[in-house]
Hints:
The structure holds two protein chains of two kinds.
Chain A: E1 6-8, H1 10-26, E2 31-36, E3 41-46, H2 53-74, E4 81-85, E5 90-96, E6 100-106, H3 112-138, H4 156-162
Antiparallel strand pairs in A: 2-3, 2-6, 4-5, 5-6
Helix pairs in contact in A: 1-3
Chain B: E1 3-5, E2 10-18, H1 25-35, E3 45-48, E4 54-67, E5 70-78, H2 86-92, E6 98-104, H3 110-126, E7 136-141, H4 151-158, E8 165-167, H5 176-197
Parallel strand pairs in B: 2-5, 2-6, 6-7, 7-8
Antiparallel strand pairs in B: 1-2, 3-4, 4-5
Amino acid sequence: MIGSDLVMYDEEFKLxxxxxQRLLSQSNAKVVFLVDKNGQxxxxxxxxxxxxxxxxxxxxxxxxxxTGGMAKLLGEKEFSILFHEGQRDNIHISIxxxxxxxxxxxxxxSSLGLVxxxxxxxxxxxxxxxxxxxxxxxxxxxxxxxxxxxFAEITDEDIDKLFG
Amino acid sequence: xxxxxxxxxxxxxxxxxxxxGLCGKTTNLHYIYKKTNPDSKGKMISLATETERTLFFDFLxxxxxxxxxxxxxxxxxxxxxxxxxxxSRKLILKGVDGLVFVADxxxxxxxxxxxxxxxxxxxxxxxxxxxxxxxxxxxxxxxxLPNAVPVAEMKRALNPRGVPDFEAIASEGxxxxxxxxxxxxxxxxxxxxxxxxx
Lengths: 164, 198
């Protein structure tokens, strides 16, 4: 097994989703989403219908990774906040608990100051939820060891079916 | 590092195509993109230079279907092959679940192939992974070229561990899906092992 897998359970997912929605409304943002550092989208909320969130997630992680590489060259641990300003939309990216990335997309209905303020508060709450999740995974209390595991009875045939 | 979401019943895995410059990593992804049902794929992202050399990475999300009620997605990445992009290559390897090494069969590229495998081993080790222990397949690409090195010789030089390997002509698609299928299988079986082992 390479590293430790990121596992998400229903309970934490609901908590995370609720917090992202709260952040969305309190910061007057268009879209809020959460990505793990490897580029996997964890959750998204807001005006996501016409947005390619999968690609955005991957590019966000690439962006954070590249910036992290620059930080190391300068002797910094990381750059924990990135901000991209566009003509219409802006993106605020921050690292939470060194593991996940919180992305807020907003336009002129909000402001950088408001977003920063609300992100700071949400980061604490999300950090706590992820710690809880990690503990759950480590102590094996989640359903992964139980009958619900999708892997327990996987066969070569199942995999062949994926490719038609 | 895969992402298993019990809430939305999804499994996401990351597969990286590695290899020397111009060996055909991006070509592999292009072919997969071209041949996949539009419902199963996302947009292919290429961060490339104006001359279409990969600058940072290519990215192709593939939703292959369901395994035991879980939607199974593979995120395919390529690395920039050119030697001087090593810092970027290291970044792409973060959280990788499976690796495809694409070798260029042309005799004049054998040295570049060997160097690239060595580079992969070193960069993986920096992330705490061991190339001999991760899901890994090798593809001998460009088999149609007249100056292609015999497969037996390539195996000796590039695949001493004897992992599954495939001959390919990526530009025409030969061997592309065989390679993908083999690495997908290994990745999922590794997940199964990981879950069983705790």
